[in-house]
Design a protein that fits this description.
mainly beta, Immunoglobulin-like, 6 helices, 6-stranded antiparallel sheet, Jelly Rolls, flat
Amino acid sequence: MKKITLLLLLITAFGFAQNSVTVDGSQTWNGYVNAFNTSDDSYAFGFSYDVANLKTTLTSTSVTLQPNFAIWSAENTNASWFDNTTTPNKYIEASSYVENNGLAGSDLTFSANLDAHTINSAYKVVAFIKALDPNNGYATVVNKNIVLTNGMSSFSVSATGAELQSGFIIQYGFSVTGALGDPANETSLGSVVVTENASNDSGDTTNDGVTIDGSKTYNGYVNAFNTADDSYAFGFSYDVANLKTTVNASTITLQPNFAIWAAENTNASWFDNPTTPNKYIEASSYVENNGLADSDLTFSANIDSYTIDAGYTVVAFIKALDPNNGYATVVNKSVTLTSSMSSFSVSALAAELQAGFIIQYGFSVKGALGNPSNEASLGSVVLSSNAAVASVERNSLLNISMYPNPTNNYLNISSDNIISKVSIYNILGKQVKNIQINKKSKSIDVSNLSKGVYMIKYTVDNTVGSSKFMKN
């Protein structure tokens, strides 16, 4: 298998650097508790707390999150916490987080895999990116978050450089909100186990990242099920536009399917009468790329809008089909999208996506056939490309070479095709050079730049790519 290291610091179209973080036990993790009154949910007090006592267990590549048991043990005779030794009068939000102010002024994505979610349903577990303003009483001015559920295999949450302003205190991590845990119930109350995102790993496999890209060929397929007993009825390929999936350069809009109702409402295979369907469907829109086999793969995107009716289930997936086993689906990694999510990430390992398998990634919408007269009220889901992943994909296609890096005086850049122009930005996103090239290679004088990290954007065949370099 191949080995490649992906750049995780990229410049976006808006001029901000792009940082990606995941679970990493080598970082310093902090703990904080916010306590609330059980009687009226009002805020009571907050304090720093040891991470291990929260109870958060860190290893080099994983975090295990549990309810807090230490407060029950230590405070069950304290009237500030308990009405009596078995009746708490407070519940808590227990946060475990990394604080890194060097992430300010950059777009930031925090992602990881969910290996287990057995925690009691009374507890809410959240992954977050926060910014606190020290000039405004340390108020939380940015709180991007996603609720982790047992239907998810991974998560991704993002904030922009415009939101994470220079001077803010930047935090990313997890919170567990719920009742104080009785130590006697520790085993039954369960846990959430989160592990590092494979795309941030540097093992012996290629780490491929894909996102929404309208230049790809999207396929459509419908699986139909009987409403009477949920049994599988039949399946067939179907035009993506009729599904109804709208694909643009960097967005996808997913809706219920209306075309089948319009075309088949007098067909007894679909309807008992013109207004009563006897089938519901799973409508999939996906990219098929067998070149992704034998590599770790992460599929991620932003969720810009989620207004689809609650009767529909929308899923993002990575699948592998085995052509030597009747095209059976042998891998199905998925995450159910919800209105509380701002982004998603789903991953599969190279060991799962074996050479020879058919690899697909995309979305499915499962639910009733849509009555065309109800299209407006049934809503949609709008997703957009993950800027960091899109940039990595473009760089690979452009076959850009750039050296030396770090450099003292000159930066040499070359491509197999004509480079139209390059622009160089400092870490704050300010453009410091803009050069017309119009040839396949160029030696760029950077001797007058101050020491530090710079972002370079280049245009090749009307496609924009980006990378970083260090000026010594």
